[in-house]
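#random but structural
TW: two for the price of one
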Amino acid sequence: MPGEGPEVWWTAGCCGGGFQVTRITVGEKGYTVGIVGLRRIFEQLVAMGRALGEDTAEELLAMVKARNYVPSSAEGKYRAALLREYAAFQASRETRD
């Protein structure tokens, strides 16, 4: 689903708190993975004024890795997928404004 924006669902936590999980497609083979807190990360990046670019991709990956497992061998693929989804998130915000 590249360019369409991420699919989001909620899951209950052990203490009653819900975690937002977003499915994205990673890599050339199109593996689907769930990322906890991605929407909130995107909102933080927008609030900090982060534009698309390699620096933002590195920051985005670091923020995702704080709550999600990312295999070191797949970091480049995750970085590209996360940046693509961040671009879709920004585009969807612009059409709403």
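TW: number two ↓
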Amino acid sequence: METVQIVLEKELLRAADRAARRQRTNRSALVREALRDHLKRLAAAEREQRDREGYERRPVRRGEFDTWETVAAWPDEWHGVKSASAACRRRTRRDRC
């Protein structure tokens, strides 16, 4: 590990120290964890932005993914069924759920 020096506002430092005590860790471990989490979020945001730009350059064409629909297992609510009880309400009275 490397030792670094950073400048923090007094209140931010106090809040970090309180959080470290609550987590039963030290300030350095708290900052390392927070920085790792932040870097993961940045990387995810960058991937999402690249995906958005890619779909803007080449939008999905109608029917492009139809082949996958035959092999994909999607949750019922993605097909418009909110729950088993919603599916039952659409059935006739003779049908049992």
